[in-house]
Amino acid sequence: MRHTYSVWVVGGDQRQARLAELLAGAGHTVYTFGLERAGALEGVEARTELSEAGESDCVVLPLPAMGEKSTLNAPLSEQKYPMEEILTAIGSGPAVCAGRVDPPLQELADRLGVTLHDYAAREEFAVANAVPTAEGALQLAMEELPVTLHGARVLVIGFGRLGRALAPRLSALGARVTVAARKWSDLAWIKVSGWEGEHSGQLKGWLCAYDLIINTVPALILDEGCLHDLKPGCLVLDLASKPGGVDFDAARRLGVPAIWALSLPGKVAPVTAGVIVRDTVCHILDELGV
To answer: How far, rounded to the nearest angstrom, does the alpha carbon of residue 76 sit from its chain's CA centroid?
Structure first.
């Protein structure tokens, strides 16, 4: 593994802006594209075209890499860039690292002969990213709830990496925590950890006591029937990636306060989120022998 690289950070939010500065601070040559609203970044050269990106060692695309209508996910840019044009300009020369590569993007990359390395699919990224996501969820809950988390009845749906990060942090703040999971083995671990457990497929009719429900499962769990069971004022936070786990149309009809809190790390802890992306991308480059 080399000590310095030529890296392009293309599109994204504050996570990518901080990533660019972190890479530059470590001595790498860093260019950005599609991040103009991030302002001047220390040690980083902003570019308005990708003509030289194909000559770099690595291109880092955002998380998720592709936004609406097959465009680059670039909320800090004034422009919309078709993803096909982005990948065509990058070409097959650099190592291309992208976050949360969905099937349409993968199909496009395959057609153009561009190999994508999905850093968000790696275990070390997912584990590390659960921490700022969990902390962001706690911050949001404390801002939105009319009661303290101490003493509140809280249901966490899902016992994956994020659920495992959330439950102990909620307990440490004095919340009365229940965790819902699908696997009986997970329910066993939930109970021996000191939390109440519920099967995620059997929640309907048992949701009337909670002050806060946090979903981490990217599949419809809280449908209209479940939402109808909630007591007035119960806050629902959906942390799951698309398609999410909450029927938000039903929530609006029923007057349930529900928030789809996507990309929390980039909003509440962009520097930490940038460090996590940087470390994972460096692991990929090391494995590729770049």
So the answer is: 17
Report d(CA 67, CA 102) in Å as an integer: 11
42 pLDDT above the threshold of 60? yes
Task: Give the pLDDT mean for 173-202.
Answer: 97
Confidence of residue 2 (pLDDT cuts 50, 70, 90): low
∠ CA 198-202-206, nearest 5°, is 70
Once rounded to an integer, what is the mean pLDDT over residues 157-184? Answer: 97
Beta bridge partners of 153: 176
pLDDT, the chain, mean: 95
**Cα atoms in the Cβ-side hemisphere of radius 13 Å centred on 223:** 10
Among 69, 61, 129, smallest CA distance to 90 is for 61
In whole angstroms, what is the distance from residue 96 CA to residue 119 CA?
Answer: 10
Q: Is the pTM of this model over 0.85?
A: yes
Residues whose CB is less than 8 angstroms from the CB of residue 185 and which lie 6 or more positions away in sequence, other chains included:
none
Q: In this predicted structure, what is the pLDDT of residue 263? A: 86
